[in-house]
């Protein structure tokens, strides 16, 4: 197993992509601190699946629109099993709105959950990783979005917030090394958002160079890859989008 005796904190781990990340890390031997916001029942079901893989799991609720709650989550996660080796910032708000109509509340929601919470959590977790033994760095993995790199006009504030999360990744790659490696994954279409029609989702397959859509398991495999090494990968952004042509959104 690639991650035996590791402890991973996964935000937004109750269901959808976060659940796949939790299960993939657990299958590779990691104990899991599973964070959720509102999805308590799904969190319990995913925790049961982790236990079925013979791994330990702690379930922690926190509203990541709050800076202090994010910091408290970090402290509770460290308390759960004595340390955190891997932090995956997957929880995300997905606020719709174009440039002209996005409100201050939309902007705050996007930046609170997608930038400030990962920042506050990284402060706490990285602080606990500062004295790791040489050659055994901790790992932070931030899940960004194509909107970080190319304009998605329907999700203006969301894209800007993910661009800031990518910038945070690159900042921490120099700020926290060599004790911590910080990387990002930039997914294309992985799992249909609830409010998107199936027809619109499937159309993304037709315009993708690979004539395919990604999957939560694809993303989870990338998380395992970045968590397990090679240790020289730091400050990278792994594209998981089938080579998507951004001019054809
Ligand atoms: N799905 C895709 O195709 C796709 C594409 C590109 C990028 N991504 C990125 O991949 C990651 C996972 O994607 P996803 O589709 O699974 O995301 P999602 O369903 O939109 O959200 C993931 C989780 O974020 C948590 N969350 C949101 N606001 C919160 C808050 N205020 N406090 C605490 N938790 C909060 C929710 O947890 P609760 O339900 O427990 O409240 C939710 O389950 C996200 O970072 C997303 O931006 C996904």
Q: What overall form do the CA principal axes indicate? A: globular
Structural class: alpha/beta
Q: In angstroms, what separates the terminal alpha carbons?
A: 39 Å
CATH homologous superfamily label:
NAD(P)-binding Rossmann-like Domain
Query: Average pLDDT, to the nearest integer?
Result: 96
Element order: H for helix, E for strand = EHEHEHEHEHEHHE
Proportion of β residues?
5-15%
Major sheet strand order: 3-2-1-4-5-6-7
Helix tally equals 7
Oligomer: single chain
Largest sheet: 7 strands, parallel
CATH architecture identity? 3-Layer(aba) Sandwich
Could you name the CATH topology? Rossmann fold
Number of separate domains: 1
What topology does this entry show?
Blueprint: E1 7-10, H1 16-27, E2 31-36, H2 40-52, E3 57-61, H3 67-81, E4 86-89, H4 104-129, E5 138-143, H5 156-175, E6 180-187, H6 198-206, H7 216-228, E7 237-240
Parallel strand pairs: 1-2, 1-4, 2-3, 4-5, 5-6, 6-7
Helix pairs in contact: 1-2, 1-7, 3-4, 4-5
Description:
This protein has 249 residues and is α/β, with parallel strands linked by helices. It has a single domain (7-239), classed as Rossmann fold, CATH 3.40.50. A 7-stranded parallel beta sheet has the order 3-2-1-4-5-6-7, with helices on both faces. Helix 1 crosses helix 7 (216-228) and helix 3 (67-81) runs parallel beside helix 4 (104-129). The chain contains 7 helices and 7 strands, in the order βαβαβαβαβαβααβ. The longest helix is centred in the middle third of the chain and has 26 residues, at 104-129. It is 43% helix and 15% strand. Bound molecules: NADP nicotinamide-adenine-dinucleotide phosphate. NADP nicotinamide-adenine-dinucleotide phosphate (NAP) is lined by residues 12, 14-18, 36-39, 63-65, 90-94, 113, 143, 145, 187, 189-191.
């Amino acid at each position: 197993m690639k991650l035996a005796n590791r402890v991973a904190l996964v935000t937004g781990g109750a269901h959808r992509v976060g659940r796949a990340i939790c299960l993939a890390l657990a299958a590779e031997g990691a104990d899991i601190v599973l964070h959720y916001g509102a999805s308590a029942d799904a969190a319990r079901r995913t925790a049961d699946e982790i236990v079925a893989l013979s791994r330990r799991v702690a379930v922690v609720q926190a509203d990541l629109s709050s800076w202090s709650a994010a910091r408290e989550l970090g402290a509770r996660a460290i308390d759960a099993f004595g340390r955190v080796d891997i932090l995956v910032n997957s929880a995300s708000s997905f606020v719709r709105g174009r440039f002209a109509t996005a409100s201050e509340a939309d902007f705050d929601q996007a930046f609170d959950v997608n930038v400030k919470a990962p920042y506050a959590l990284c402060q706490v977790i990285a602080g606990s990783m500062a004295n790791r033994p040489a050659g055994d760095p901790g790992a932070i993995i931030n899940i960004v979005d194509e909107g970080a790199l190319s304009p998605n006009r329907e999700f203006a504030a969301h894209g800007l917030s993910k661009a800031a999360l990518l910038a945070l990744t690159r900042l921490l790659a120099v700020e926290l090394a060599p004790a911590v490696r910080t990387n990002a994954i930039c997914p294309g279409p992985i799992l249909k958002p609830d409010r998107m029609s199936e027809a619109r989702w499937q159309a993304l397959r037709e315009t993708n160079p690979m004539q395919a859509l990604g999957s939560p398991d694809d993303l989870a495999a990338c998380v395992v890859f970045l968590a397990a090494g090679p240790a020289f990968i730091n400050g990278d952004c792994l594209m998981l989008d089938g080579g998507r042509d951004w001019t054809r959104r």
